């Protein structure tokens, strides 16, 4: 298993010989609803769009997960697996092979990787987007991804999971609460899933953010403080801090393959 963090929520996952592009924002600015005065993200370093992508995987339909300028640059023939909300975005952009997964539904890529949609982040009062469980069907290695730190208790039935990709830093708006749930939420999911490795997503990266929203957002926590939390709770999970744009092999102990 090899992972490459491409800033923000964007990842290249190499699993079972396949290359999965997850929630890609790779070109242009990140703006919500053309309101650049409210929030705007700019990458400090341009990187080439990864080649030979076997699947695009989208957890949400918002711009920081289904980023229209990036999706317009990618080959419309690449298969896409997405939340129903994100599936509408890519279909409108002309993608030809789009599978929308509701919670609990699965998709199998080339008989080698099973992708299961699980409840993820609430977007408004009636919409809950997707998290994902990815499983290498040959060796049983598993990845759980949820980009905002909202973890369904139903995940406990999938334990153990080898790798968790989720925020470990809280982003809060005073008086309103968490936009992204980090430290305690990540600790709870580590207790549930007993992962060998946890890798942070969402916060940080080689990006400059500006706009009114940035003046009120507050970040709390760090990789170091989360490692201390793991130790305090007698968890053997390793917290790995990725470097943007640099691929790394995830070293895992072998676990019995469930049949």
UniProtKB/TrEMBL annotation:
A Pfam family: Lactamase_B_3
Keyword ATP-binding assigned: no
Gene Ontology molecular function terms on file: hydrolase activity
InterPro entries tied to this protein: RibonucZ/Hydroxyglut_hydro (IPR036866)
Keywords for the protein's UniProt record, in alphabetical order: Hydrolase
This protein's record includes keyword Membrane: no
Protein name: Zn-dependent hydrolase
Organism of provenance: Hydrococcus rivularis NIES-593
